[in-house]
Amino acid sequence: QVQLVESGGGLVQPGGSLRLSCAASGIILSFYTMGWYRQAPGKQRELVAIISSGDNTNYTDSVKGRFTISRDNAKNTVYLQMNSLKPEDTAVYFCYAQRVGWAYWGQGTQVTVSS
User: Fold this and answer.
1) N or C: which end of the chain has fewer CB within 10 A?
2) In 3-state terms, what secondary structure has residue 113?
3) Which residue from 85, 70, 84, 87 is spatially nearest to 35, judged by alpha carbons?
């Protein structure tokens, strides 16, 4: 059974930082393209950051220079380091794993940026 379990969300003040983790079981993350998506209330789910199996990364424009996606294959875990957080970053953040013919989602972790 495949599981992606996110952690690290919470309440943070504007300008603060959080690091999200996505721990996988049942799959070997190094074979997968991994992504972080987010969904704010009343909005569609959007791609935030992605890292390929070859460690190529890409980010949505609104987080470039502030967020960093990385993976630790030994721990079978993907991370999203979020710095200089803004209120508009408030959303539920979801981990995503994809390879040809297969895709998996985590349950999400809430990130709230507010003073």
Assistant:
1) N
2) strand
3) 70
